[in-house]
Amino acid sequence: MYWSIFLLTTFCMSQGSEPVKPMFFLEQINVLNFDRAEIIIATSLLVQGAAYEEDDLGDALHRIKRLPFVYDCQFSLAKGSRRHAFVLNIDIEATQRLSFGLFGNSRNTLSNDREQTDSSLHLNYRLFSTKYMLAFASAGVQTFEDHVSQFYSIGLNHYDLFQQRLFASLIFAYSPEDGLRPSHQTASLLLSKPLKTNQWFKFSYQWHQNEGGMSELNIDDSVFVLEFPSEISSRIGLKWEYNTMDDALEPTSGRSLAISANFRNVKSNSESELGEDSSQQGWLEIEAEEAWLLANNRSFSIGGGVSYWPYHSNSSGPVSTDILASGNSTDLDRVDMNLRSSLSHSLFKSSLRPKSNELRLTIGASVDYQKRPHYSFYNSNQMIQEGELTQIFAEYSAGVVSGRGSASGGWFGDGAS
């Protein structure tokens, strides 16, 4: 009898010791200072007439901030028409339609003391938006070893496809012949479906075509004759992602984790004796990143990843995979590891609206490690290197970006989470 009373008392005390998290019943959701409220509400995953905890509202705020056309976002709650009901006001500060990124980059191959430098300028422009769609365009130039290349892209995002909170992005990219590489074009499709509050399942498909050609490249007083076979490739990817970052480009808090599986099929045709060729590759990849807000309006992030390529098959011969070599390589059981960090600091920030004319300095560094246990290198269809290959790359970059400019083109297409 007394033992039963003791257990009941202990249970009641343990239940009472747990703090009860307050719930906010959202009677209405308003979007301020932005004319496409449907996109914002669909991205937030919040529904009018439902109750949410404070953590749920914080996750929704971060999802909206990760949108490429949102520079800043604030939540505020107002009293509703009845007791314990609230009106959520979402105050949006949109980016400028035009933004840019200007970057310089140096990549060093530590295993053979080879250095590559390049610089790039990217312009991103938001063309128009409808109820759930956004159209955008990007253009830029890049320099590499005295060669200048151009690239252009145009894309369309849908933020609530079939009214199922399904994100879809379609991007077309084109680069003309630049004296080093022949022209090439790419079409990419991304579908993203939220699973839980901060989890997504993503499907991606990419089609890529290279025009064939020959060119010469001077490196350290040596002339490399490069042959680019005409090539058509397709890639399919499946990814699970967990993401609590508060920004897609320059996060100040949060973390992300992604696990993906990819398959790539390549068909090529060379003008030399290599002739026609096809190959298939499959690989698994894990990526993680975490970000912090430092003093004096600085943000810092560190991340890394590892990929394993257990599957590679050729139907007729080697496939060209190395842009800096006048030959072809194949590898099995390839392992790639990457560690990267980024530091961002505000150079100029307006105290008036719009604040999205802010200029930021971004400094980045990364180290890549590649190990290929079964590696073979071909030149003119003759094997000249075979065995294990280990390479370590160190890369440094610095640049200035406008409000939401980026070092990579087509950045509107990464707004799936």
In short:
The chain is built from 3 helices and 21 strands.
List the topology elements.
Elements (H helix, E strand, L loop, with lengths): L1 H16 L5 E10 L4 H8 L6 E3 H12 L4 E10 L5 E10 L3 E12 L4 E16 L3 E12 L2 E15 L4 E10 L8 E13 L2 E12 L2 E7 L2 E7 L1 E14 L10 E16 L6 E19 L3 E17 L13 E5 L1 E15 L10 E21 L2 E20 L16
Parallel strand pairs: 1-4
Antiparallel strand pairs: 1-2, 3-4, 5-6, 5-21, 6-7, 7-8, 8-9, 9-10, 10-11, 11-14, 12-13, 14-15, 15-16, 16-17, 17-19, 18-20, 19-20, 20-21
Number of strands: 21
Order of helices and strands: HEHEHEEEEEEEEEEEEEEEEEEE
Structural class: mainly beta
Strand order of the largest sheet: 5-6-7-8-9-10-11-14-15-16-17-19-20-21
The CATH class name of the largest domain reads Mainly Beta
Strand-residue proportion: over 45%
Q: What's the CATH topology label of the largest domain? A: Porin
Largest sheet geometry: 14 strands, antiparallel, barrel
Q: Termini separation (Å)?
A: 56 Å
Low-confidence stretches: 1-9, 316-331, 377-385, 406-416
Proportion of residues in helical segments:
under 10%
Overall structural domain count: 2
What does this structure look like?
This protein has helices at 2-17, 37-44, 54-65, and strands spanning 23-32, 51-53, 70-79, 85-94, 98-109, 114-129, 133-144, 147-161, 166-175, 184-196, 199-210, 213-219, 222-228, 230-243, 254-269, 276-294, 298-314, 328-332, 334-348, 359-379, 382-401. It is mostly beta strands. It has two domains: 2-94, Roll (Ubiquitin-like (UB roll)), CATH 3.10.20.310; 98-414, Beta Barrel (Porin), CATH 2.40.160.
